[in-house]
C-alpha cells in the first residue's frame, strides 16, 4: 500500500487562498459608497441579465464579485433566510449583521473543508438606517472573514487602484450625483490611464432612505445615469486653448484731399 501524499495544513490553506484570490481578481470591481441619503453600489457589468448587485430585504442589499453561480447561490440563500426570519419573528429582526454572520459561517466552513474547492467570491452586505450614522457595510472574503467598512469599499478586479482613487477623491456626506461620479471615475482609473466607462456598461443601485416605500432598494436606469453623469469626458474650460488672436485688419487707405 502506497503512502498518501502529505501536505502541511499551512501550505494547504495558502494554496486554497491563492486559488480563491486569483479567481476573484479576474472579475471587474464593485464599489460601495456611502452618500448623504444611503449607500450606492456601482459596478462595470455589460450584462443586463446577470446582476452583481441585488436586494435581500427591505433595507438590505447584496453585492458580489467572482463566480456568478457561486454568489448567486449565496444570494438566494440569503433571501430565503431573511424571508423566513421576517415571517417567523418580525421584519425588524432581519438585520445586515445577522445575514453577514450567516454568510461568514457558510464561507468559512467551505474554505476550511478539504472536500471541495473554496468559493471564488467576495461579498458586500449593506444595511441603511434612519440616519447616515446607522448605515452599515460588511465585506466578506472567501474564507469567511468579516470587515465593517466605513465611507467606501472596493472588492474584485483592480481593487488597489480603485481604492487609491477613492481615498483621494471621496467626500463624506456627498450628494448622489457627486458620489456616483466619484465611483465611476474610480472604476475607470488604472495605473496607466483613466477610462470613461459607457453608461450601458454600468450596473448601479442604491439603498435610498428617502424612499417612501418600505423597500429602499432601487436600480438606476441608463436614462437616469445619463442625467446624473452628464458632461463626462468633456473638456473643462481650463483645458480649452484660446483661439489665436485674429490678424489685425489692413489699415484703411488714406483719403485723398478734395480737389479745389
Topology:
Elements: H1 9-25, E1 30-35, E2 38-44, E3 53-57, E4 60-66, H2 68-88, H3 96-112, E5 121-127, E6 136-140, E7 146-149, E8 152-155, H4 159-169, H5 176-187, E9 202-208, E10 217-219, H6 222-228
Antiparallel strand pairs: 1-2, 1-8, 2-9, 3-4, 4-5, 5-6, 6-7, 9-10
Helix pairs in contact: 4-5
Structure description:
The structure is a single chain. The strands form two sheets. This protein has a five-stranded antiparallel β-sheet with strand order 8-1-2-9-10, covered by helices on one side. The radius of gyration is 26 Å and the shape is globular. A hairpin with an 8-residue loop joins β5 and β6. The longest helix has 21 residues. With 260 residues, the chain is α+β, with helices and mostly antiparallel strands. α4 packs antiparallel against α5. About 7% of the residues have low confidence.
Percent range for β-strand residues: 15-25%
What would you report as the Rg, rounded to the nearest angstrom? 26 Å
The main sheet orders its strands as 8-1-2-9-10
Would you report the number of β strands?
A: 10
| Backbone structural class | alpha+beta
Low-confidence stretches: 233-251
What kind of sheet is the major sheet? 5 strands, antiparallel
Helix content: 25-40%
Number of helices: 6
Global morphology: globular
Termini separation:
135 Å
Strand/helix succession: HEEEEHHEEEEHHEEH
Kindly report the average pLDDT value: 87
Amino acid at each position: 500500500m502506497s503512502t498518501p501524499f502529505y501536505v502541511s495544513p499551512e501550505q494547504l490553506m495558502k494554496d486554497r487562498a491563492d486559488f480563491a484570490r486569483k479567481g476573484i481578481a479576474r472579475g471587474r470591481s464593485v464599489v460601495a459608497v456611502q452618500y448623504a441619503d444611503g449607500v450606492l453600489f456601482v459596478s462595470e457589468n455589460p450584462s443586463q441579465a446577470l446582476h452583481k448587485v441585488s436586494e435581500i430585504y427591505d433595507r438590505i442589499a447584496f453585492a458580489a464579485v467572482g463566480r456568478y453561480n457561486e454568489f448567486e447561490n449565496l444570494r438566494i440563500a440569503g433571501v430565503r433566510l431573511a424571508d423566513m426570519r421576517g415571517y417567523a419573528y418580525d421584519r425588524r429582526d432581519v438585520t445586515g449583521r445577522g445575514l453577514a454572520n450567516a454568510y461568514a459561517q457558510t464561507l468559512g466552513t467551505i474554505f476550511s473543508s478539504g472536500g471541495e474547492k473554496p468559493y471564488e467570491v467576495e461579498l458586500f452586505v449593506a444595511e441603511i438606517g434612519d440616519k447616515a450614522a446607522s448605515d452599515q457595510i460588511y465585506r466578506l472574503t472567501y474564507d469567511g472573514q468579516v470587515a465593517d467598512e466605513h465611507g467606501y469599499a472596493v472588492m474584485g478586479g483592480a481593487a488597489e487602484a480603485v481604492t487609491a482613487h477613492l481615498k483621494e477623491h471621496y467626500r463624506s456626506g456627498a450628494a448622489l450625483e457627486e458620489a456616483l461620479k466619484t465611483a465611476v471615475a474610480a472604476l475607470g482609473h488604472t495605473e496607466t490611464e483613466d477610462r470613461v466607462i459607457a453608461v450601458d456598461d454600468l450596473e448601479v443601485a442604491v439603498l435610498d432612505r428617502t424612499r417612501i416605500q418600505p423597500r429602499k432598494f432601487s436600480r438606476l436606469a441608463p436614462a437616469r445615469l445619463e442625467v446624473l453623469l452628464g458632461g463626462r469626458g468633456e473638456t473643462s474650460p481650463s483645458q480649452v486653448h484660446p483661439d489665436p488672436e485674429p490678424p489685425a485688419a489692413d489699415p484703411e487707405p488714406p483719403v485723398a484731399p478734395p480737389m479745389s
